[in-house]
Prior knowledge:
CATH architecture: 3-Layer(aba) Sandwich
CATH topology: Rossmann fold
CATH class: Alpha Beta
Low-confidence stretches: none
Number of domains: 1
Distance between the termini: 32 Å
Structural class: alpha/beta
Largest sheet: 5 strands, mixed, barrel
Bound molecules: hypoxanthine
CATH superfamily: Nucleoside phosphorylase domain
Mean pLDDT: 94
Radius of gyration: 17 Å
Shape: globular
Helix content: 25-40%
Strand order of the largest sheet: 5-8-7-6-9
Number of strands: 9
Amino acid sequence: MNEYYERLQKALAAVRERTDAVPFAGVVLGSGLGGLADEIEIDTVIPYSELPGMPVSTVQGHNGHFVFGRCGGVPVVMMQGRVHYYEGYTTPETVMPVRLMGLMGIKMLFLTNAAGGVNWNYHAGDLMLIADQICNVPSPLIGPNIDELGVRFPDMSEIYSKRLRSIVRDTASENGIPLREGVYIQLGGPNYESPSEVRMVRTLGADAVGMSTATEAIAARHMGLETVGISCISNLACGVTSAPLSHAEVQECADRVAPQFKRLITASLQKMYDQLS
Ligand code: HPA
């Protein structure tokens, strides 16, 4: 067996010693958005550090746990904290937790992140449904293909599911939550962008910039998982505003938007569960 796949299988076996849950959805909680996991009906919490072979997150505001439970009645596993490429992990390593949730049997993946607004019309505090993405870090699929997970050359024509996006859009309008829709670009980080880099990514077609998510979405699609994503625009990217950026600002903004964000995720998940399960 491929060494990487063996690591995943060992981690899966360790999960199965703790819970036999087969959640409907996997939810990845971005920077400052982890609070949602504290509000669900929790069954089991497993720190990544207790799963052999799993990478462990080192960033402030990114506790590393899988949280199993019910969110608005929907069986979920939430990733409270993720690992990033800039921590020194390879992109295949950074997607291990998402692949592990796929092996647990989730039916769909809900990705969230904090991102910088690149589109001139965006404001800090906006929520953006991810329509498509640009992955500007190495693909998480590099290396020998793991045939048990998916094909060598997977299609990426609809990374973010049309029908799941439509559910999020409907949910937002029913709840009076303003929602943007745009293209997310993943850069390596950990430094924020220069004004010229922000101009470059806008020219490339990006509306928001961040340091995660695109790799996870690729790994999910490789496994055939239906995927949807929301960015919390925590700040305007460098050059869109003259203010210097700080991680504290990103966290503060996430705190401010958290109530709307939680309502949108929970209500969307309920609708998805009703319609797809
Ligand atoms: N750039 C990159 N990543 C980010 C930003 C940003 O402005 N804000 C939150 N994550």
